[in-house]
Amino acid sequence: MSLATGLAARKKAAREAAFLRRELAHRSAGAQAIHLTRWLAERPGVPVAGYMPMRTEIDPLPAMEAAARHSRVGVPVIDGAGQPLRFREWRPGCTTERGHFGAHVPVDGDWMVPEIVVVPLVAFDRRGHRLGYGGGFYDRTLEGLRAAGPVIAVGFAFAAQEAEEIPVEGTDQRLDLIVTEAGIIRPD
């Protein structure tokens, strides 16, 4: 087995185990976004990109709604495979439509460049590595944003999504912070 094949198999196994942990956490979730809401409130005026939760993802919408009172908030829009994400401004109650992969996106609104990106994930470790869905959208996007200026990547997940170690490759972008329903983790 080649090194690349072995890494792909490890990522696949890690992804499957993490989906199961996330499903169990989602069923018992209470006040999911309280720590994210507080952290964003300490950064008024800084443009934020959140995401529209799908399936069993932890729900950032309460934090996004609170942030929209003092900052521009956007959500990701997928233009196509292999492309970085773009962010369209979102406001509570705005009209949305289904985008790629079923995520809802605003029907209209200005494009924005966030300085904080709240990143959904399948699993994370304490070193700031994340396991996504495998499309590389956030990795490409964070790489481009970081090349243009400062940006904070905030992984948002259930505490149960923590893994001992995430298999990583050269294109994977690290998280600057991880926020769960249980608290805030600053990567090692």
From TrEMBL:
GO biological process, one term: tetrahydrofolate interconversion
Keywords assigned by UniProt, alphabetized: ATP-binding, Ligase, Magnesium, Metal-binding, Nucleotide-binding
MF terms in GO: 5-formyltetrahydrofolate cyclo-ligase activity; ATP binding; metal ion binding
Pfam families the UniProt entry points to: 5-FTHF_cyc-lig
UniProt keyword annotation of Transit peptide present: no
List of residues binding substrate: M52, E57
Signal peptide range in chain numbering: none
EC number assigned by the record: 6.3.3.2
Magnesium recorded as keyword: yes
Cofactor(s) essential for the protein: Mg(2+)
Reactions mediated catalytically: (6S)-5-formyl-5,6,7,8-tetrahydrofolate + ATP = (6R)-5,10-methenyltetrahydrofolate + ADP + phosphate
EC category name: ligase
UniProt: ATP binding residues: R130, L131, G132, Y133, G134, G135, G136, F137, Y138
InterPro entries: FTHF_cligase (IPR002698), FTHF_cligase-like_sf (IPR024185), NagB/RpiA_transferase-like (IPR037171)
Family note: Belongs to the 5-formyltetrahydrofolate cyclo-ligase family.
NCBIfam families referenced in this protein's UniProt entry, alphabetically: MTHFS_bact
Protein name from the UniProt record: 5-formyltetrahydrofolate cyclo-ligase
Organism for this UniProt entry: Limimaricola pyoseonensis
